[in-house]
Amino acid sequence: MRIPFEIPSFDEVDEAAGFLYLEEEYLVFEYHILQWGLIKSEPSIVKAERGVIDDVRVQRGWFKDRLLIATHNIELLKAIPGPHASEIELRTKKKYRPQVEVFVEQVFVWKDRRGG
Asked: In the prediction, which pLDDT does 37 show?
């Protein structure tokens, strides 16, 4: 399951859009940087091991929801565009809410699995 997400303007001009998904041992962030709605960069892929993900939750909004991914890993926070203090905030369209809620449950099951 791939969850489409957006990261709103993080430097007054650029924003990011992409997909979040699980891949065996990793939570994968795949995104493009956009400038004025046009793709500005090649796709970036950031893979986070299950041990660096502390929590995942959804905050519902009127038009878009926020998918919040808490981590203690500074490198992960730096790798994802935007100002992230201790959690990564991804915006998802309301129409994807059912898929996002199932995905969050899948992340918790994935986090509880032991490698090997």
From this structure: 74
pTM of the full structure: 0.89
Provide the β-strand partners of residue 55: 70
Cα separation, 44 vs 116, in Å, equals 28
CATH second-level architecture of 3-111?
A: Roll (2.30)
Which single residue is written with the structure tokens 């935007």? 82
Q: What is the DSSP letter of 9?
A: -
How far is 60 from 51, CA to CA, in rounded Å?
Answer: 26
CB within 8 A of 106, min separation 6: which ones?
1, 22
Count CB atoms within 10 A of the CB of residue 67.
24
Distance of alpha carbon 14 from alpha carbon 103, whole angstroms: 27
Task: Find out whether 19 and 3 touch, Cβ atoms under 8 Å.
Answer: yes
